[in-house]
Amino acid sequence: MKDIVVEVNKLRKVYGDLIAVDDISFNVEKGEIFGLLGPNGAGKTTTFECLEGLRKPDGGNFKLLGKSPNYNYNNLRNIIGVQLQTSGLPDSMCVNEAMNFFSAYHNVPSRYDLLERLGLKEKMGVQYHTLSTGLQRRLALALAIAHKPPILFLDEPTAGLDVQSRVELHNMIKELQENGTTILFATHDMAEAEKIANRVAILLKGKIVTIGTPREITATGAGLTKISVRVEGSSLSKLNIKFPGVTQFKSIDEYTIYYSTNIGLTVSALIEYISKQKDELIDLRVERPSLEDRFLEITNTKTKK
Amino acid sequence: MKAFKNHFIFEFKTGIRDKNLLLMNYLFPLGFYIMIGFLMANINPDFIDIIIPAMVVITILISTLLGIPEPLVKSREAGIFRSYKINGVPATSIVIIPPLTTIIHIIVVSIIITPTAFAFFKAPLPKNWLAFVLIFLLTAFTCAGLAVLIGIASSSSRGTILWSQLIFIPSMLIGGYFVPSQLLPTFLGKIGMLLPSTHAINLFKFYSYNQSIDYNPIWSLLILFFGGILSFGLAIYLFNWDSQNKTRRAHPAFAFFAFIPFIIGAFFLP
Description:
Helix content of chain A: 25-40%
Number of domains of chain B: 1
CATH architecture of the largest domain in chain A: 3-Layer(aba) Sandwich
CATH superfamily of the largest domain in chain A: P-loop containing nucleotide triphosphate hydrolases
Radius of gyration of chain B: 18 Å
Order of helices and strands of chain B: HHHHHHHHHHHH
Largest sheet of chain B: none
Oligomer: heterodimer
Structural class of chain B: mainly alpha
Shape of chain A: elongated
Distance between the termini of chain B: 46 Å
Number of domains of chain A: 2
Number of helices of chain B: 12
Shape of chain B: globular
Strand order of the largest sheet of chain A: 5-6-7-3-8-9
């Protein structure tokens, strides 16, 4: 059994009448990338802020590296690295100054190698407010990992980044994981969570509604596979055709989309039907349900309740 | 120590890099000094006798009361203090370093004002330089404390402007330099005694210029000293890392306790 690095037990945070975090419990193992997913206001950031020592929980407890910080921030600051949702640096602070400033407070040497690795070498003397969003996020990450924390919290790490920066950041996160860092991140981006997280928890109205690997979570849904078909003629436009395994279908642009519980049966029946109608198959795509589909399914169900 | 040094150097540079702080630390005090110097030399030659301490006190008021509070509120609102907290920056550094670097800027401006006032306006130099320096430091300490307290206790930038101006504007009008305190009506004289500038001018006149004064200088010394101590103490006590997290040790109204020495002075000083 792997080491439990983050142990959260019935954590609760209340703001007036609003229960922002409602008795949530989860564990994160050493070297794991754990994603906290949820819509706006689900409690992701509040959960992180409690674990980071920025807010005092109203109930429950948590342990980091087996020790309870007892809400004394000094017990936390050297074992965690945090990239906040808003980077929080003074506008006039230069990149190299930021590195010197925070490294000195962590009592570690300045990590200029990290700035170079993250493409900030040419920006050393540039003030924070003149950096692009992507560079600001990279600087925030460099500062969060400069003291080599065993636990890293990333709140919306790729928000506002272009595709290339996003890929680079994902690679960096994977690299940190390979070096043994345990990473907890909060995101709205399901594709990102599916791509980099070992496990995710979906948070809704302060409660964890499901937790597991992305594959486990998608497998527990209705399990409908999406089959998109495009044909030359109009053989699929008849509304009364029924294919085995299909529970629902719709037309989008030139595609007819079927949701099936049995891919094999549905695809073979579709091909046979198109052939019999002397129509020509132009495109056929089969997509397993994504984490996003499952997330929407969960959030829609829970919201209706 | 290295962390404190880095923080100090960064804050000092910010005092010049930031356009608003550059204005408050250098451009406004020096511009005001030049304007007042030429104006008063013609219309009120007696003012020239105290132009050096008066302009030093005005510089202190501008740089501290108008320069320190707003960046504190903005940093809190922008989440900079949250980031500092996560990275182990102590609250005491956040409360103490900006006033210290501001005092360095004030020293630079005062070093410009003192010899130029002597050279251009024939202003008398202090007779007791040690007293001049000590009173300067005490006044800067008290005003910086009040400024930090305003920044810590105010919930918004608008609040800092209101509270800062509430001290700054009366200080300019009845702070003892343009109109001597003994010439003010009793009521305004009492109001004037609530202001740090009145006590600073009182001390400068007595200890560094050997001039006759309006109030007992020991009282002024005690009022400024305890006003400064209370201001910094309350600023550290009321410090809040986070504009989103409203939890405080006490209500911001506790900041008014910093005025207790000034209120006592206004009531009990002869």
